[in-house]
Specification:
- By secondary structure, the chain is α+β, with helices and mostly antiparallel strands.
- It has 2 domains: 110 residues, no CATH class; 173 residues, no CATH class.
- Helix 2 packs antiparallel against helix 4.
- The longest helix has 18 residues.
Length: 338
């Protein structure tokens, strides 16, 4: 029996979002069938009290059964804890925990940090990013119209589509990176605006030039990828955050690989073709140190940057020609990014 994949569900849940960065001492109680299980649950409860929980899951239909794969990220780690009470009758453990909030991608190796906890924190964030790094969840093709032209030996299909960002995916990425990572580094330079003719009168160019030089920070570049969001291409960005290693599978360049699949009445795969399409509006890939001009102001990106233009869309037409006997079996088409 062919595996049927349900529409992927990526579910973010922030039980208690916290914007603070640092440490907090909290008491928490956990329950379980054994002491170890109760202690583990008490640690989770302590984490949730301070930094919340982000849950992401995929559901699949395999062999007639729904299988759900879930990942959790708590946004921090427990540096140390003290067991206050162990109730053997209730199988509960109460602890006082020093919860550290970590919103960056670094692993600090010195006497005051728990290296294993820092590493685990990074690995948990990276696991979530790998789950989000799925182009078929991120970008969706809607089929707007199909024109069919039959011939004696073949049938031609003219398929008109629209490529969009999946709003649910965008929301998940925005929520996760903004609550689990530090802000990325960009800087603006006012010199492109001052003296450009828009603002230009006696005395202001000198003051403006000095002000621009003063505001221009000497920021070191980093090789950590960050993700930025804006509504439309060439509109200034809303915000940028480090991306826990960033994307590998999500399209990052001007040409995108697309798979066109044709299915029969029993959802059996009959036809498949790979195409490559130019993508100019959906996203931008910026090198560290590169600048972009937004409304006469230059913004310099100090990290490798992936900009998601979340409200953009592009239209494409795919022309397919198949054997007449194959065409008689075709019932539906599916187009997805690879």
């Amino acid at each position: 029996m062919m595996k049927q994949k349900l529409k992927s569900l990526i579910i973010p849940l922030l039980i208690s979002a916290s914007a603070n960065v640092g440490a907090e001492i909290v008491q928490a109680t956990g329950y379980g069938n054994t002491f170890e299980e109760a202690l583990y649950q008490s640690k989770l409860e302590a984490l949730q009290k301070v930094v919340g929980t982000f849950i992401i899951s995929d559901r699949e239909l395999k062999d007639g059964k729904i299988v759900e794969d879930s990942l959790e990220y708590h946004g921090g780690y427990i540096k140390s804890y003290e067991i206050i009470e162990y109730d053997r009758f209730l199988n509960s453990v109460t602890i006082s925990a020093d919860v550290q909030v970590k919103k960056d991608n670094t692993i600090i190796a010195n006497g005051s940090e728990d290296v294993d906890s820092n590493l685990n924190n990074w690995q948990e964030k990276r696991a979530i990013m790998q789950k989000l790094d799925n182009s078929s969840n991120a970008l969706v093709f809607t089929i707007d119209n199909i024109n069919t032209t039959p011939d004696i030996y073949s049938v031609s299909y003219n398929i008109k589509t629209t490529l969009l960002w999946q709003p649910k995916w965008v929301s998940d990425v925005e929520t996760f990176i903004s609550t689990s990572n530090v802000e990325g580094t960009t800087s603006t330079d006012l010199s492109g605006r001052i003296g450009s003719g828009v603002i230009n009168f006696v005395g202001f160019n000198v003051v403006g030039g000095l002000l621009s030089t003063f505001l221009k920070k000497d920021i070191k570049s980093s090789d950590r990828q960050m993700i930025c969001f804006t509504e439309y291409k060439n509109k200034d960005i809303d915000f940028c955050y480090d991306a826990s290693g960033g994307f590998i599978n999500i399209p990052r360049y001007s040409e995108m690989k697309v798979k066109i699949s044709g299915y029969g009445i029993h959802d059996n795969l009959i036809y498949e073709q790979i195409a490559y399409i130019p993508v100019n509006k959906m996203y931008d890939n910026i090198m560290p140190g590169q600048s972009k001009k937004y409304m006469l102001i230059d913004r310099t990106f100090h990290q490798p940057t992936y900009i998601i233009n979340k409200k953009e869309f592009e239209n494409y037409t795919f022309n397919i020609k198949v054997d007449y006997n194959m065409a008689k079996q075709l019932k539906t088409f599916k187009i997805e990014s690879e």
